[in-house]
Amino acid sequence: EKYSKKYILDNSIVFVTPVHIIKEIQSISNNGNLINNMCTNSQMRRKGIATKLLKRVLEDAKKEGKDHCILQVYSDNTPAVNLYKKIGFKIDKTFLSTEKRIVYNMVHYL
Fold it and tell me: How far apart are CA 105 and CA 9, in angstroms?
């Protein structure tokens, strides 16, 4: 939490970290945020909670003068990929995880 900002809504949580803090992440520029560790309570899924959280994160990033937000998601996590696309994220890069799973690096320009 030293570098990350935490957002909580209805037992769901997401952390946002400036991309320049995490060198291992493929970023667009040093003026972006990484959305990481998004967790939605299983009983609260499909109720718009994650959408509300993400929209708040994007609004705050824009107010802070950031130019983009990025996140990484496994390509087979279809509900999450669809949510991110619905909000305006685009697949920027694709790579293999250490577990040999396809990962999307997705970006939302602000």
Answer: 25
Q: Give strand pairing partners of 77.
A: none
In terms of phi and psi (left: phi > 0; alpha: psi -120 to 50; beta: otherwise), the region of 2 is alpha
Half-sphere exposure of 57 (CA within 13 A, CB side): 33
Alpha helices in the chain (DSSP H): 49-63, 78-87
How many CB atoms are closer than 10 A to CB 54?
Answer: 23
Residue 71 one-letter amino acid = L
Number of Cβ within 10 Å of residue 51's Cβ equals 12
Q: Judge whether residue 29 has pLDDT over 60.
A: yes
Is the CB of residue 36 less than 8 Å from the CB of residue 1? no
Determine the pLDDT at residue 1.
Answer: 52
Place of tokens 């209805």: 10
Cα–chain center distance at 106: 8
